[in-house]
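not sure who needs this but someone in the group chat was asking about Neuroglobin from Seminavis robusta so here u go. i didnt clean anything up, its just raw.
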Amino acid sequence: MHHFIAESYFDVVTNVNDTWARVKALPNYREEFGVALFRRMFEVAPDAWTVFPWGRGNKNDEDMFKNPEFLKFARRFTEMLDMAIDMLGPDMELVEEQLTDIGIMHSRVGVVPRHYPLMGACLIDTLADKLGPETFTRRHRDAWGATFQFMSTTMLQGAFDDMKRKLEGGGKKNGGSMRHSVL
Ligand code: HEM
């Protein structure tokens, strides 16, 4: 029984790694993937623009997608996914700690819980789009769904704990230490 469960978790990680390796083989994948993902994201969540420093005061127009700050962020975001995927498996404690901190930073810049499932759906649609249905099958979709669920739950846990500490008047965790706290 335990063996069966361990095997299915292994499958999830394998499926995510396999599909991600294929994305990484695409030309200029960092920028292309990040841009495609955020194009979708801003379509389904137009308000999400406002949480990005380079998005404030702008409309969801083509100029924005050429903004060097946006392109830089799109590349960084893909790199971050890359890192998180690399970390899946061997040392979950480390990845959980980092996601918790990233979650706190996100709540401070104005990312709201609703944005997470939207981002998850956009991520999966972007993968499906880039890889095609032959490569990105139902089980890959499920594996990514479970993985994104884990990442966003861990990030939100960090954000909620941070809020709780504040409400209780406790000390701040990582106050001001994230590079991009803008609010
Ligand atoms: C599992 C989901 C997510 C992960 C793992 C993640 C990860 C990250 C990381 C690592 C950074 C820091 C990049 C850097 O400074 O080098 C970042 C920045 C940021 N993320 Fe996310 N993110 C996620 C979801 C979201 C969502 C849903 C939104 C909102 C629409 C969002 C908005 C932002 C913003 C506004 C920044 C700061 C941008 C800047 O200062 O240039 N993220 N994210």
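also The pocket of protoporphyrin IX containing FE is lined by residues 48, 51-53, 73, 76, 80, 84, 102, 106, 109, 111, 115-116, 119, 151-152, 155, 179-180, 182 (CB under 6 Å). if thats useful
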